[in-house]
Amino acid sequence: MLEKADQLFVLLQHWVMGLVPAAWQTATGIVLAVVAIIAVYPTLFALAVLLERKGLGRMQNRYGPNRVGPFGLFQPVADGIKSLTKEDVVPFRADTLVHFLAPLVLVVAVFMGFAVLPMGRNMVLVDMDASLLFVFAMGASTELSVFMAGWSSRNKYSLLGAMRAVAQMISYEVPLLLSSVVIVMMTGSLSLEKMVEAQNHYSYGLPHWYVFTPWGLAGFVMFVIAAMAETNRSPFDLPEGESEIIAGYFTEYSGFKFALFFLGEYVGMFGISGLGVTLFLGGWTAPFAFLTWVPSWIWFFGKVMLWICFFIWVRGTLPRLRQDQLMNFAWKFMLPMTLLNLLVAAMWRFMGEGWLRWAVCTAVVVGAYVLMGRTGMRRGQIGPRSYRYAE
Amino acid sequence: MSIAFVLVSALTIAGGLAAVLLKNLVHCALAVSVAFAGLAFLFLQLDAQFAGFAQILVYIGAVAILVVFAILLTRGAESPKGESVFSRAWQAGLAIAAAVFAVLGWAILQGAAELPANAATPQVTVNDIGHALMSRYVLPLEIVALLLTAALIGAVIVAMHEKERAK
Amino acid sequence: MLGEGILKGLAETAKNFAGSYVSKERLTTVQYPEERVAPIEASRVFPFLVYDGGDWQAGLRCVACQICEKECPPKCIYIEKSKDKKPDYVGKPQIYPARFDIDVSVCMSCQICVEVCPFEAIKMDTEFELATDDRFGGLLRSRDQLAKSNEYYHGIHPTEAAEVDARLAEEKAKVEAKAKAAAEAAAAKAAAEPATPAAKPAGGESK
Ligand code: SF4
Ligand code: SF4
Questions:
Q1: Which helix (H) or strand (E) element contains residue C183?
Q2: Residue C130 C-alpha to ligand 2 middle, in angstroms?
Q3: pLDDT digits (tens, 9 = 90+) for A32-42
C-alpha cells in the first residue's frame, strides 16, 4: 500500500500508457510527465505567492490578503484572473518581436530545468548523464531573456534593471557552480539521480545528507546565497528594486506577459530550490530512517516548500544590497570561499574515514570563514552598512 | 539525415546569417545566440551531452551576454543610417572565411576517410571526458588553464590601473 | 562576526511572525469597511459648500465671486454666475453660483480655495469615500452634491466652525450696527435739516 503511494504518479503514468497502442507509449509517457510538471509548478507558484504575501504581512504585523475566500485563500485566483484580463500594453518604441519573445524564452528555460530533477523515487522525466550541467545550462539561458526584456522595452529603468540583473547573474553563477562542484567531486557523477542515491543511506537513523559534513554545510550556505542572487530574491533584488527602478527589466510588461515573468521568476525559484534540495538535502530521501515509509515525493516537495519559506523569511528580514556591496560579496567573499571549499572537499576525500578529517575540515572551513569575515568587515567590503547621514 | 537535423541546421544557418546581415547590433547578438543554441542541439543530437550543455552554458550564458554587454557599454545598438552592413574590406573577410571553411572541411573529410566504415558510435560519458582530460590531454588542458589565468590577471591589472587613475 | 546581524534580524522577524498570531495588539490594521477609526478633526479631503438654514439653495454662502476658481492650482473648480440675485446672510442681495462643480479626480486637497474665499463659503470635508464607477460624470461633483449644512460643518470641524460662526456673527453685528447708525443718522438729518455734516458716521467703507 505504502509502496503504491510512493509510486503513485509513476503507476498512474504507466496505467495511462497502457491504454494507448504500444507505438505511442513512450510519447504518451513523456507528454503526461510534461503536463504534470506544467500543472504542478504553477499550482505551487500560486501557493508560494499566497504564502509570501501572508508571511511577509505577518512579519510586518499585518494580516496580509484576507478578503478573497476564507482567509484570503483564493487570492491567487483573483490575481490570476486580473492579470489575464488586463490590457497588454506594448510601448510604442519597443522592439515588438524581442519584447514578445522575452517572457516566452524565460518560461521555457525555467520549465526545462525540471526535466532532470528527481522529484521522487523513479520520478524523473529524463535521466541523463549530465543532468546537473543541463540545469545550469537552462539557468544560464534565463539571463538572455532578462536582457532581451530589458533592452527591447526601450526604457531606461528596464535597461538599468537588465544590466544589473545580468551582471549579478553572471557574478553569482560562478559561486553557484563552484559550490555544487563539491558534490560532483564526492559522487563522481553529474547525474542528479546518482547524487540522491549517494545520500540515501542512514546510520544511527540519521541520513547521509551532504549538508551534514563540513564542506557540505559550507557549500550549502554558499549555494543558498548564490541561489537567492540568481533568482533575484531580496536582499539581492537590485534588478527589480521596486523603490528605485520600478520592477527593472519588466517595467514595461503588463497583463499576461507580466504574469509570465512573475511565473518564470517563481518557477525558477522552485527549480533552484529543487536543485539545492537534491544536491545538499538528500533530494527525495526522508530525514530520518524511521520515516522512510512516507512517499518520497512528499519529502521532495516539502523540502522545496521549506526552502521557499526560508526565502520568504529572508525577504522579510534583510534590506536590499547596494551594487558595489553585491559585487564585493560575490568576488571577494563567495568566490574564495567556494574555491577553498573545493580544497576542503578534496581533503575530505583523501583523508579516509575517522574523526581526524572531521576536525581538520571543520577547522579549515570555520577558520577561513572567520578570517575572511574579519578582514572583509575591517576593510568595509562586506558586513553591515553604515551611512554617513543616516546614523 | 533526419528531419530534426535538417531543422536544427536550418535554424543554425539562419541564425548565423541573421547575425551578419541584421542592422541592429543587439539583434545580431541575439541571432548569434540562436546559432549557438542550434549548435548545442546538433551536439545533443550526436549524443554529446557534455559538449551540448557546455555550449549552452558557456556560449549562451556567458559569451552572448558579454557581447551584448559590450555593445551596450561602448556604443548604441543602432548602426549609423545609410551605412552598409558590410565593412569595406568584405572581400578579405570572405576570403578568410572561405579559407577557414576549406581547412575545416578538408580536415573533417580526411578524418571521415580514416574511420572504418560502419564504426559503432562510441558511448562517451562525462566520466570518460574527465579521465581523458586528466590523462591523455593533460598538457593541452594545463596550457589552456595557464592562458586563462594570464587573461584573468591581465583583466585584474587593467581594472586596477583604472582605479589608481581615478584616485 | 560576519552574519551575526543577519541571524539577529531573522530572529526578530520570526518573533514578529509568531507574535502576530498570539497577541492581538501587534496587529494594528483596521479592517476598513467593517471597522473604522473615529473621524479626525484636522483631516481634510475635498471641499464642500456651506449653507445656512434648512434650504441649501437659499442658504448657500457662496456669492460666485470666482476667486477660488482662479486660485485653485489645478483649476478643478467650474463656476457659472447666476443672472438674478438672492439675499446673503446679512440680507444684502448677491448673485449666487448657478453652477458650481469641482472635479474630484483633479482636486489635490490643498485647501487653497478655502483659504482665499472671503465669504467662508467653501470648507474642507472629511468624507473620503468618493469612489464611483462613473469615470466622467461621477467624479464631477455638482452644486447639490457639494452643498452641506452649517450643522454638518460643526459636526466635522467643531473648533474651526465655531470660529467661523463667531466671525460671521461679528461681521453681521457690525453691518447691522452700521445700518442702524446710518438709519439713525438719516433720521437725525431728517429731524435737523441744517445740521453740520460732522454728525455723519465715518462711512465709505461699506459703500
Ligand atoms: S482643495 Fe485645492 S485643488 Fe481642491 S478645489 Fe480647493 S483649491 Fe482646488
Ligand atoms: S466659494 Fe468662496 S471664493 Fe469661491 S466663488 Fe464662492 S464665495 Fe467666491
A1: helix C158-191
A2: 22
A3: 888 888 888 88
Torsion of CA A378, A379, A383, A384, to 10 degrees: 80
* pTM of the model as a whole: 0.76
| Cα distance between residue A50 and residue A77, in whole Å | 10
With respect to residue A33, please indicate whether it lies within any of the assigned structural domains.
no
Half-sphere exposure of A346 (CA within 13 A, CB side): 7
Please count the structural domains in chain A.
1
Query: Taking Cα atoms as reference points, which of B40, B141, B134 lies closest to residue A188?
Result: B134
If contacts are CB pairs under 8 Å, which of residues 178-237 in chain A contact chain B?
188-190
Residues of C in contact with A383 (CB under 8 A): 2
Comparing B49 with C73, which gets the higher pLDDT?
A: C73
| Residue A98 burial (C-beta neighbours within 10 Å; 0-12, 13-18, 19+) | buried
Name residues whose C-beta falls within 8 Å of residue C159's C-beta, 6 or more positions apart in sequence: C41
Closest residue in chain A to residue B77, using alpha carbons only? A151
Beta carbon of C106 within 6 Å of any ligand 1 atom = no
Query: Which residues, listed in sequence order, are joined to residue C123 by a DSSP beta bridge?
Result: C48
Task: Note whether A377 and C3 are within 8 A (CB).
Answer: no
Q: Whose CA is nearest to atom 8 of ligand 2?
A: C65
Q: Give yes or no for A384 touching C (CB within 8 A).
A: yes
Q: What is the mean pLDDT of residues A233-260?
A: 80
Q: Any idea which of A11-25, B17-31, B77-91, C147-161 has the lowest mean pLDDT?
A: B77-91
List ligand 2's pocket residues with C-beta within 6 A: C 62-68, 79, 116-117, 119, 121-122
Radius of gyration of chain A (CA): 22
Question: Ligand 1: distance of its center to the CA of B125 in Å?
Answer: 76
In this structure, is residue A291 part of a structural domain?
yes
DSSP structural state of residue C33: T
Domain membership flag for residue A105:
yes
> For residue C207, what pLDDT is reported?
41
The minimal CB distance from B65 to the residues A139, A166, A189 is found for A166
Write out the residue range of the structural domain in which residue A313 sits: 92-254+266-352
Split at pLDDT 50, 70, 90, the class of A390 is: low
Give tens-digit pLDDT for A289-313: 777 777 888 888 888 999 999 999 9
Ligand 1 in contact with C19 (CB < 6 A)?
A: no
The answer to whether position A10 is within a domain reads no
In this predicted model, what pLDDT tens digit does every residue of A120-140 receive, in sequence order? Answer: 777 777 777 778 888 888 888
